Amino acid sequence: MRTASKKISTVSVFPDRKIFSITGLLFFLCLGGTNSLIAQVSATIIDSVEQKPVPFANIVFLNKKNGTVSDIRGKFTLPPDIGDSIAISSVGYRNKQLAVKDIQPRSTIVLSPQNITLSAVDIYPKENPALRIMEQVVEKKDRNNPDHHQNYSCIVYHKMTFDLQIPDKSEVVDTIAQKYNNLERNHHLMLMESISEKRHLAPDKNKERVISGRVSGFNDPSLAVLPAQIQPFGFYDDYIPLLEIEYLNPASELGLKNYIFILEDTIVENNDSLYYISFRPRKKANVKPLTGSFHIHTRSYALKNIKASSHIPSSPFQLDINQSYEQTKQGQWFPSELESQLTIPPNSSINPTPFPLTGNAKSLITAINTNPDLDPNDFNSVILEDDMPSNPEALEALRYEPLSAKDSITYQLLDSIGRVNKFDNFIRFQKSLIRGYLPAGPFLINIKQVIGYNKFEGFKAGLGLWTAPELTGKISIGGYFNHAFKSEHQNYGAGIKWVSNKIHQTTLSLSYGHDMNTTGEFSFYNQKTLDLNAYMKEYSVTTMDRKTEYLGSLESRVKGSLSGKVFLWHSKINPLQAYDFMPQTALLVEDYKVTEGGIKLRWAPGEKVSKTAFGILPYAGLEPKVWINIIKGIQELKGESPHYTKVETQVEKEFRSGPSSRTTIRLTGGWIDGWETPSNLYSFFGTYDPISIEVPDMFATMAPNEFAADQFALMFLRHKMALRQNKPGKFKPEIHLLSKAGWGNITHNDIHNFKTFDKGFFESGILLDNLYNAFLFKYGIAVHYHYGPYRKDKNIDNWSFRLSLGLTL
Predict the structure, then answer these.
(1) pLDDT (0 to 100) of residue 17
(2) How many whole angstroms separate alpha carbon 563 and alpha carbon 504?
(3) 4: buried, middle or exposed (CB in 10 Å: 19+, 13-18, 0-12)?
């Protein structure tokens, strides 16, 4: 039998030289790394007054000719061997110099705000180095703008808190301040979070889908879309929209002419360097201004850090934003973090408390993919879509950073208070108001039917009541009744609506009404439920017919920027008086019946919209808008039933003619073939009264029903100039230069001898708007003058003086 043998090896008491060398190297590397960790010091820079972080402050190592920059949260880290002292600076704060040995790890460094007094005139050298740098930024912004060159997708975590800026507890002496301080000691006034998927198809297609959200005190998360709409994702467009208000970007061609730039410093960081440039508007620049600073990468002239603040004295709020960019592996600068602070002053219409109300928002960009698989068909006019479920499960899974103790207490406390006090009713109120209703338990009150006025009927008062979704789901049943005090008519009606999709605004309606009909009016499809201009137009109505009507309609946003409705209605019309455009010998028009069916469309190519629980709302833009109506009708009169056709169209385009001016042109036309009664003619072109209310896009010196036409063409030209935008005080008037022209005729008018304006009707005027504003409304005055072939014999009759009313938003 064979015996297995073992090979016994001997072990030296001295380790192998190679092992010894590696071990020694690792030991000394670890020792060196430990020393480095010990030598590195992290700290946070905060504002001494607001106790908020100071982002993008410059930290210069005085002995080394280099430095670093604090991040968006005011944090920075000092590397080892930087010397004995550092200097900290930031625009709007007093400079501070510290000894390195006095800075403790995780300590807080306080900077004191400094009021910057601007001189009465702009003084700058012939060769401004900051201006040369900014010219390079503008020249290379297309290359540095990530939107222009690559597709990308990312996940964005949004968070926003609302708090009152109460003085430090030790300084609080009055009982009111103490009560507010106690209220906010452990929780925020409000907290909201959301997670969104953002996709971009170069160069200009965007889609952000909010997939989860939560708002303290509410089960309905609809308000969680707010943080995503405060500031843009980038800072390279010529105009920067902040809460729907457009500000001139300093880093633009016009910005170079309207801002002053100062090279404050050059920072060397990690073998790279940054220009630190501050900007402010020139004294004579008539623009909506921003003030702030840029950190600019010296080699690429790309924006790395941005601080900007809106300062418009007439605005009900102030907005400060911070944006931080990081370089991707492909060398492209991409947004990494966005922060905003919304400040609403105390004792205002929005904030009745004695302390400023602040909303602090931040957006963290994660999961950046610069080579995603994108389908062009997924991009349309909807750039922000609310796809949030009521439960926040996705938020819990994708939340980028954990909640603080104060955040958790806020949710726990406000959620319990919200359930008891039914805070969700506030969301219901907002959603109803946007659609023109006021909630009343299981019913909705139609605001239009509560009170109204026009010159023919006088004041009207009544009630319109419809069932709410809580009672009848997607179907709403209702009716209305009102009394007209001047004409002494009672108007009433009833109907049923099927709202298949509130967000897509798809509604099928059937209704009956015994009401009044404005003579000679034409209208285009308008998705605005509460339209102030429509109320102003109705005010001027002087001639109406009695009607009994049966109506069916289907309206919807067909696709993207195309929306409209189809309709069919049958009416019995009872004219109540002869029309002003008829000769004095004409008799009162006889009663007749009419049946009409048609389609009304609105198309706005390039228009951007948000699709949220509050509906589809368009963003302000310069895109052209086109309306078209095609209508076929049958008129029953004296035993005959002739057919007629109507085609009506309108085109509107707005142009930016300067940083503070815009020009709008609107062309409108209509044509009727086969009309039989004067009631069918177009005649409501003007709203003349010697003293009246301004009605946009109507002739101010032409009376209602003064002229008639079965074919017409109108042109309205408006040039708006905003003044004193960069001046102190709340007085920010706007000048509107107005010119209007129209032509209208009637085929074979020699038979009827109706008054037409076939030779052309012309008027011009000036509107001084925003002379005074309060709450959400602005007021102004206007004067219009009529000239041309139809000029009145008495000169005073060619003038019309107006009071204007508009919304400040």
Answers:
(1) 37
(2) 10
(3) exposed
Cα diameter, the chain: 143
Q: Are 86 and 62 in contact (CB under 8 A)?
A: yes
- Token pair for 595: 């049946």
Do the Cβ atoms of 151 and 238 come closer than 8 Å?
A: no
CA distance 359 to 52: 12
Q: Is 180 helix (H, G, I), strand (E, B) or coil?
A: helix
Closest-CA residue to 134 (of 279, 270, 22, 28): 279
Helix (H) or strand (E) holding 35: helix 17-39
Query: Which residues neighbour 77 within 8 Å (Cβ) at sequence distance 6 or greater?
Result: 40, 41, 42, 68
Work out whether the CA dihedral 584, 588, 594, 596 comes out positive or negative: positive
CB 373 within 8 Å of CB 599? no
Q: Which DSSP string corresponds to 671-724?
A: EEES--SGGGSB---B---SEEE--TTSBSSS-TTSS-BSEEEEEEEEEEEE--
The 10 Å CB-count burial string (b at 16+, else e) for 392-428 is beebeebbbeeeeeebebbbeebbeebeeeebbeebb
Contacts 24+ apart (CB under 8 A), 281-286: 281/726, 282/122, 282/258, 282/726, 283/118, 283/120, 283/121, 283/122, 283/726, 284/122, 285/258, 285/259, 285/659, 285/726, 286/659, 286/660, 286/722, 286/723, 286/724, 286/725, 286/726
* CA dihedral over 606, 625, 434, 730, signed as positive or negative: positive
Phi and psi (nearest 5°) for 528?
-75, 120
CB 766 within 8 A of CB 797: no
CA distance 500 to 493: 23
Rounded CA-CA distance 295/68 in Å is 11
Kindly report the backbone phi and psi dihedral angles of residue 56, in degrees, each rounded to the nearest multiple of 5, phi listed first: 60, 35
Instruction: Kindly give, in sequence order, each residue whose CB lies less than 8 Å from that of residue 375, ignoring residues fewer than 6 positions away.
Output: none
Task: Compute the distance between CA of residue 436 and CA of residue 300 in angstroms, rounded to an integer.
Answer: 52
Amino acid identity of residue 758, one-letter, is: D
Strand residue runs (E) in 429-575:
437-440, 443-446, 451-454, 458-467, 475-484, 489-501, 506-518, 544-559, 562-575
pTM for the full predicted model = 0.85
CA distance 647 to 630: 5
| Cα–chain center distance at 256 | 26
Q: Which residues contact 159 (CB under 8 A, 6 or more apart)?
A: 191, 192, 193, 227, 361, 362, 363
Cα(611)–Cα(557) distance, integer angstroms: 11
Measured distance CA(144)–CA(204) in Å, rounded: 15
Angle at 246 between CA 243 and CA 249, to 5 degrees: 120
pLDDT digits (tens, 9 = 90+) for 379-393: 988 899 998 876 667
Can you read off the two tokens belonging to residue 662?
């815009």
The enclosing H or E element of 470 equals helix 469-472
Q: Residue 257: CB partners within 8 Å, gap ≥ 6? A: none
Q: How many CB atoms lie within 10 A of CB 270?
A: 8
Q: Which of 327, 257, 317, 247 is nearest to 295 (CA)?
A: 327
Strand partners, 335: 325
Report the alpha-carbon distance of residue 260 to residue 291 in Å, rounded: 10
Residues 6+ apart with CB under 8 A from 727: none
Point out the residues of the chain with pLDDT beneath 50. Answer: 1-38, 118-121, 123, 125, 170, 172
| Model pLDDT, residue 173 | 52
> CA-to-CA distance for 132 and 47, rounded, in angstroms?
32
Token code pair at residue 322: 């911070």
Lookup: tokens for 762: 């012309």
The contacts of residue 536 (CB under 8 Å, 6+ apart) are 693, 694, 695, 696, 805
